[in-house]
């Protein structure tokens, strides 16, 4: 059992470390709006992951794996969401900053912690591959003879905790250097890069397949 837990923890950490839309959005929110916004975005992302895991545990994610139409609908909807976030990021690259320091000292006007949470949630839910992944990843670590549903839910919670620790570490590191990142020229460049990457990832999602 110990070996299985170690294998699960290592695998979950490696999955968390893999860059993707979530990483881009968390970095962007942390740099632009500070630690609280970064944490809210992380919590939204973990909520999305837990919802995908719950869907997998209940067998709902199997629909995405079995139905090309269902997967395509989620795939296109997810791509639209990511394009929207990317376009908004590019637009906000031109938003004003503190003229004295070039650093925002609070969440900017029009950006609430709830908005950051929602962005993290939508970014995760926008990726149907997350549902397919949850369906294929978690069951590998269910011990023989163990009750499937409770075990899957515990594994989902464990993977979310590992994910949470990883992303909170990123938020802390980014915010420690936020004054550098938030200099007007640097911040604007990072916003443009983030927006472009998100739109690129949206295009990639739009062209992806279930396998």
UniProtKB/TrEMBL annotation:
InterPro entries: LeuE-type (IPR001123). It is found in: Cell membrane. The chain crosses the membrane at residues 48-66, 148-168, 189-207. It is a multi-pass membrane protein. Keywords: Cell membrane, Membrane, Transmembrane, Transmembrane helix. GO terms for molecular function: amino acid transmembrane transporter activity. Pfam families: LysE (PF01810). Coiled coil: none annotated. It comes from the Bacteria. Its main location: membrane. This is Lysine transporter LysE.
């Amino acid at each position: 059992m110990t070996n299985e837990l170690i294998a699960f923890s290592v695998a979950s950490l490696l999955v968390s470390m893999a860059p993707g839309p979530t990483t881009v959005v968390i970095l962007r929110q942390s740099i632009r709006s500070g630690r609280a916004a970064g944490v809210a975005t992380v919590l939204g992302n973990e909520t999305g992951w837990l919802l995908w895991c719950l869907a997998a545990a209940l067998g709902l994610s199997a629909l995405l794996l079995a139905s090309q139409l269902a997967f395509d609908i989620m795939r296109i909807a997810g791509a639209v969401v990511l394009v929207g976030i990317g376009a908004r990021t590019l637009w906000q690259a031109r938003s004003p900053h503190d003229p004295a320091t070039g650093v925002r000292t609070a969440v900017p006007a029009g950006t609430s912690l709830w908005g950051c949470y929602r962005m993290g949630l939508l970014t995760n839910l926008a990726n149907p591959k997350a549902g397919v992944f949850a369906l294929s990843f978690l069951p590998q670590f269910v011990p023989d003879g163990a009750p499937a549903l409770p075990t899957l839910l515990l594994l989902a919670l464990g993977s979310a905790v590992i994910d949470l620790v990883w992303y909170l570490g990123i938020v802390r590191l980014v915010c420690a250097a936020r004054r550098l990142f938030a200099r007007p020229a640097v911040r604007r460049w990072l916003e443009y890069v983030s927006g472009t990457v998100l739109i690129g990832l949206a295009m990639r999602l739009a062209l992806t397949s279930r396998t």
